[in-house]
Amino acid sequence: MKILRLIPALLGLAAASPIQNVGSRGLENLSDLSNTVSKRLSLSDTRNELSECRPVTVMFARGTVELGNVGALVGPPFFNALGRAIGDENLGVQGVEYPATFLDYLEGDDAEGAAMLASLLGQAVSLCPSTQIVLSGYSQGARLVHHGVAQTSASVAERVAAVALFGDPYDGRPLPNIAAAKVKTFCFVEDLICKNTIIVDAFHFAYSIYAIPAALFVQSMVEV
């Protein structure tokens, strides 16, 4: 319980801390898309659009203690950028329902969420045979993607068109039955969560800076 009481303090500290040396990280040429993204924003922390069977379906697992089923720190900025890149009408987003507790992160146990993601993948394949599936997750949610894919068959995993992971504790580990070329992981070298520790610093809360690069990667992997 003492650990759980620390969560608000950690979040507040990270939000208040200046992030030094993040810079542009090679994003200098993305201003045009950035400007268009800002004109049409959705900040909802809950998305349930799998049944709409749009041309591209993103399945997203939020980070630890985030609200809703897609959170707010990374998911919505990524969806907004991707919607502008491929057309909002072509994009459906489905959040993964799972507890996302700090205790589960410490224990390395994402069993409920992993099973849910595997189930959602199966539903997408059967209900929406033409949709292009994109997997994505932030922090504990990125780790969940690894566990969920491990529970799916090779034929289902083959339907995944792209994977975009942010602040992944399992950075560098391959995803079963998904080609490495389909996977893009965004991790600050300074982010110790990406080294599978429990140390959270301000860098771990700054992955929205990679929303547009992630969207452009996914755009390059799908056809709309």
Q: How are strands sequenced across the largest beta sheet?
A: 2-1-3-4-5
| Beta-strand fraction estimate | 5-15%
Order of helices and strands: HHEHEHHEHHEEH
Radius of gyration: 16 Å
* Overall mean confidence score, pLDDT: 86
Structural class determined from secondary elements: alpha/beta
Poorly predicted residue ranges: 1-40
Describe what you observe in this structure:
The protein is α/β, with parallel strands linked by helices. Helix content is 37%, strand content 13%. It has 8 helices and 5 strands. It has helices at 2-16, 31-37, 75-86, 102-107, 111-127, 140-150, 154-157, 211-221, and strands at 56-61, 91-95, 132-138, 160-166, 183-186. The model is unreliable at 1-40 (pLDDT under 50).
Offer a quick outline of the entry.
The protein has 224 residues and is an alpha/beta fold. It is built from eight helices and five strands.
Descriptive tags:
5 strands, 224 residues
